[in-house]
Every structure is written in structure tokens, then in C-alpha cells.
Amino acid sequence: VLDSQYGLYVWPCAVVLAQYLWAHRRSLPGKRVLEIGAGVSLPGVVAARCGARVILSDSEELPQCLQSCRGSCLLNRLPHVPVLGLTWGRVAPELLSLAPIDVILGSDVFFDPKDFEDILTTIYFLLEKNPHAQFWTTYQVRSADWSVEALLCKWNLRSIHVPLHSFGADTEHLAGSSMPGRHTIEMMIISLAQSEGT
Question: Which PANTHER family does the record associate with it (predicted)?
Fold first, then answer.
């Protein structure tokens, strides 16, 4: 997919997250996985092909992204993977009625700082509802001034940095992109911070 709009391009972060899923493929069968901001859905498709029960989602306000999710499923012979319109920061009936989940995926969702709080509001809601779940996310370092650390503290979330070399994603060609510039990708796993005494 060569369209460089938000949800219509395979961004380098999606390739790195897909590599993480492939490296952990033996743990995926039967896992309940939700991909947020899925767009072309590479991570979600890989998880589904590895045996996870996947739901793909993107903004209900971006029908072309939802269609892209459906198209990726059809191209990969996954016609029964549900696609939901979920808008970050909005507690809609679709979000409230989600079945239990084990893993939330998000590749390059931390793209625009104005969305960071809405993303983490949604993630916090999902983790509160599924306390043992984790949010696996990759992001591109675009500015030293952009950080989610303060918001993680605000929402009582903790993060663990996952070195790319630990799952074979540190090779130069892996996250290659035809787009100009250097692409520094990072990965973290976000979960609920443990309360004192637990």
C-alpha cells in the first residue's frame, strides 16, 4: 500500500510490531487481541494468521481506514475478523460492549501529540476492564519534546521498554521505508501500574 495518508500506508512501526508478534507467535493461539488505529492492519493480520482471535479497529470518523482494515482481511483470507469503528477518547457503545481482551496492539498511534491523552484514556479504560491485558505499541521517535511519560503517570500506567534487538527487529532493512528521513522506532509494553499492597 503506497498511500502515505495515516491509515493507508504500511508505516515502519507496523513492520516492527508485526516482527514482535511473529517472534512471539507460539503464545498467540487463542489470545484475544484488539488492534487500535489499525489502518492497513499488518500487526492484527499477523496475529490472526498466528491463531489469535483478533478484532481490528480504527476511527469511526475515517471510513476509508475501516475499509482498509476489511480489505487487508480479505486479501489475507481472514474474512471473519471483525472491524469496529472506535474513536480514541470516546466511550461509545462499541467500546463498552467489547468482549474481554488479552492484548491491545497499536503501531504508530503516538503520531500527533494532540491525540496522546485520548489514546491513553482509551487504553486505560480497556486495561481497567481487562486488568491482566497489556498494550503492545511501537512508535517512531519524531521529536525529543514528545513524550507520553507524564500521561502514563497521570493514568496510573507503567511501561516497559522492549529493545528491538531482543526480537530481531534492529536490522536496518526491517523498518525500511520509501519515505525520506531516518526512522527511529521504539517499542514498549504498557500495563496498569500495580497498586500499593498488591
Answer: HEPATOCELLULAR CARCINOMA-ASSOCIATED ANTIGEN, HISTONE-ARGININE METHYLTRANSFERASE METTL23
